[in-house]
Design the sequence.
């Protein structure tokens, strides 16, 4: 089972001080917890220099997955998810690498950071709105819970393999 920080027990505790996950966000976290092994770590609403993605999935020697969740297109706002992802990707690199390491390792690290967005809209609406976006994957909330689809995504983004 994947490790979640803060733990699911803490997130569901009534005394938890930070913002609690919505019902849908909690279902997504439970899906990760149940379907991923303990080599995966999920960080719920991490702080990346002002931006707070829904979660970051991390697997040592494999990569990082930045995950955003929106209840509707109107919630997305001015910064499209793929643009927000680009910004967050470079924030993660700034946290991980020193200025000297960036010169030699930034390009290889960029290939290990992936982005995914889950939206509470139909798959057809998402495809229509984001058909031109590359290097970023969109899921409909309803289709996200098909483990075969998610497993294919993990395989395609090399998060199941040691790199």
Sequence:
């Amino acid at each position: 089972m994947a490790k979640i920080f803060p733990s699911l027990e803490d997130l569901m505790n009534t005394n938890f001080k930070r913002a609690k996950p919505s019902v849908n966000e909690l279902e997504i976290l439970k899906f990760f917890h149940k379907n991923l092994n303990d080599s995966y770590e999920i960080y719920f609403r991490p702080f990346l220099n002002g931006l707070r993605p829904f979660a970051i999935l991390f697997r040592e020697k494999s990569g990082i997955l930045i995950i955003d969740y929106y209840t509707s297109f109107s919630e997305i706002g001015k910064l499209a998810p793929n643009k927000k992802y680009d910004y967050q990707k470079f924030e993660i690199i700034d946290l991980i690498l020193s200025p000297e390491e960036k010169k030699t390792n930034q390009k290889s690290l960029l290939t290990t950071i992936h982005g995914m967005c889950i939206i509470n809209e139909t798959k057809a609406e998402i495809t229509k709105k984001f058909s031109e976006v590359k290097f970023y994957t969109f899921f409909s909330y309803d289709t996200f819970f098909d483990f075969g689809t998610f497993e294919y995504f993990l395989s395609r983004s090399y998060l199941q393999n040691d790199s």
